[in-house]
């Protein structure tokens, strides 16, 4: 190929137990691809380097750097052994056999090349890494398909094994950006003959007969959502077939399904589900939680401008850029059920990152996984989230229908849904109860809070809308309106302290509310 240079080439037989180092001949800040034809037809690992992303059809790989270990009970299909990559000290060895399965899957998808981050990024070069991360979304977006390896690069996972793939931050962008994503897994039962189910679907094609198969990401998620189906393959009949590749926690599967079925990333439903995915997933460095999703929103921050633990600074930069580009503050939908980030109340509290565990927050009940705190994504998304602008300190200025409040008490019970049973006090005056139990008199159309101290407002931010996917069922929510409680701490500066869940009875009152400009800042 005239437009590329070969920066690495080695026979597979000589590759076993070696450390691959492409930095000797590669040039930083260029694109690289693995040649599947050379791999499959000539048993050679060949890496090409390009000055620009080529127009050739290529596949990308989505995997976890620390995946499943070697299965001592099944060593079949492991012919070539493994190799390591210089600089990739946190990753598993790369199985040459797994790479072969991936190359076959790529070719079956009409792609002659593969992009694998471990081999196609100079792992010991900080500038090349930063350059590649800024272009990561474009690399995946331009690929013909993404091949998902839930078990990692050490070996293929069986459908009845649990993996951490869906819990990792980077894997979200990797499957949302490409035109198509397919899950590659170990499969010894032959071709599919028959399948039947009531509420999910599943179909697959063999990749290497008798060893591996692949299915669409949607089918894998559907079969992993708790549903069982009847399946007959050439060498086995399953009366109750299901997948556990993505674990048994419903929230991770549901949020990704919501992104896929929410109308695409031009739609608020998908965008809000993507924010929720980001909050419940984890990564090695906190800042990667931002870098791993920024491309989904058309943002390309420079990784060299942020320290590895500066998730807050990177999140503010991402949010500000989204708003600057005309987007909405869709992260507020997820923020409704989380406490505010200290000092930046426009953002939800940013979870603690545990590279080998869950994303967690410290609550009154102790440290809890964020996935357990957030409500089920299938309840819906919030339509009408405001836009606005944000400065580099995280101060969010937006306009919203709002009304002044005065405090009148507190309830000891938990989460409150406001409807005709609670909307009037004993004197017949309109009131609202926040999710933190505080009770407020609401002054529709008023300009003052009738207080000599700092002001408080209820700011309406949208209406709950149900996802249309059959995966989430069909139900009617009589409490669709959402609002936030903001309290003034300096003249003209407010912080978010709670939220409101409001019934349909409040619609006429919301329509009568004046439009206020609110500066949502935060207490230090």
TrEMBL record:
Signal peptide bounds: none
Superkingdom to which the source organism belongs: Eukaryota
Any Pfam family hit: HET
Domain Heterokaryon incompatibility: 58-151
Listed InterPro entries: HET (IPR010730), HetReg/Transcr_Mod (IPR052895)
Organism expressing this protein natively: Fibroporia radiculosa
Protein name: Heterokaryon incompatibility domain-containing protein
